[in-house]
Amino acid sequence: MADASVDPWYITKPNKGDMFNFSGLSAFIRFTDASGKTVFPLIPSDNTERVNFWVHRDGFTSPQRWIWDPASSKADLTATLVPRVHLAGRVIGQDDRPVGRAQVRIGGAGYQFDDFREQLETKDDGTFALDVDPEMYYVFVAQKDHQVSPATTELIHKTPPGSPIELKLQAGIRVYGTVTAGPNNEPLPNLFVSLLLWDHSYEELPAAQQFPGGLAGRKTISAVTWQHVKSDKQGNFEFYSCPGELQTDCGFGFDRNTQNFTLSERPKQIAIHFASNAPVPTPLHGRIVRADQPEIAISGATLSGFPLDLDNHGIINPQGTSDPSGKFEIRRAFSDMYLNIESADRSLGTVVLVKLADDNLTIPLGPTSSAHGRLLDSAGQPWAKQRIEYGMTIRAKESKLSTQCFGGRVNTESDGTFTLHGMVSGHDYEFTLVTADKEGAPGLWRRLGRVTPNPGRSIQLGDVSVKK
């Protein structure tokens, strides 16, 4: 099988005293040739642990994880992919009319090691389609605003069901609550809260309809779908769900809070409290102004932060917006953090390092830079409708870990051209091609290049491409 991507996950470096995670590093992705082969000359000789190789190709899936054991005498590994199953469905309202732009959440589970999870949006005619892994038990739920369909289950083997999946919306049930921390029950804003819907009905199927091999001594098959929201300034959050077995999940610092409950017909209120001794981050205050005219405040500027201590961050990405007078108040992280600020049209911006003790800052915004280029495919032809992500690299404090943030994403035009906007001087930006599957979900990140912004100027990148 040609053009399958192959990349290792972890290797152990005992001589260096730690392990190395290849995840998200496009430089270490290889693609199979016409004979289905690829070579990895980069596995260090002192690696002692088994290595998991991820193998991906559109329209196919891995029924298991592919593990190479350095203790074996073999230096090769064969991965066998199986075709996915194409499903179609539609979402309708209580009046039986199609509902466009509805969210459809899909969860699948089987006797494979990894489960299946996907979320997509219906077309204007209410239809949706996706490829799913075979030999799994699936649960489907649709939602549009406060309308939610009952959970629908389907056992998928190697062929699609005889008829499309139909999900009918009805009034959803409210699940709401507040996130607090510390002895004074201080509200925690901007914190992710997840709502999981579990389906345990597989074991209720007649034995003849279950997967061969019976239930005894095997893993429990429970399909699950997820919703995610952020708490507001007062720590409040809200979901709408169908009846079922539910679980809330929330993390703060090193602590997690999970609560299980059965939802029937009445709204459910959840109190999420973290009683740890970790201090609740204090608010950060400041004002956004123009760099060339400091007396002019900038209204509607967006702020997003990223902490330098990646091992101790309860609020991963503090966010906020400046008011009409340019003032802002956001929750900070547990550590020093980089703060990205940009005007509403992204023509002005900056990135500043905010210390844990800083407060009442005045932050000037200067002109941002843009970069223009053209993406070519492997044949040297313009590559249209491709997703490119870009951002600056931030390295964690006292760590070799780094991440890319404070950028954006664009799609190439019909002639392959693209423009990266809103980049600030003083930082290099990496830009990456994101290969998507048929449903538009990101699958592969492949590095295209690096750009150094010049304030207020447009940079010409020329033709760029990725090499296999």
Report a brief summary of the structure.
With 468 residues, the chain is mainly beta.
Provide an overview of this structure.
With 468 residues, the protein is mainly beta. The chain folds into four domains: 78 residues, no CATH class; 197 residues, Carboxypeptidase-like, regulatory domain (Immunoglobulin-like, Sandwich); 85 residues, Carboxypeptidase-like, regulatory domain (Immunoglobulin-like); 96 residues, Immunoglobulin-like (Sandwich). It has no helices and 39 strands. The chain has a seven-stranded mixed β-sheet with strand order 28-27-30-31-32-26-29, with no helix packed on it. Strands 10, 11, 13, 14, 15 and 17 form a six-stranded antiparallel β-sheet that branches. The chain starts with a strand and ends with a strand.
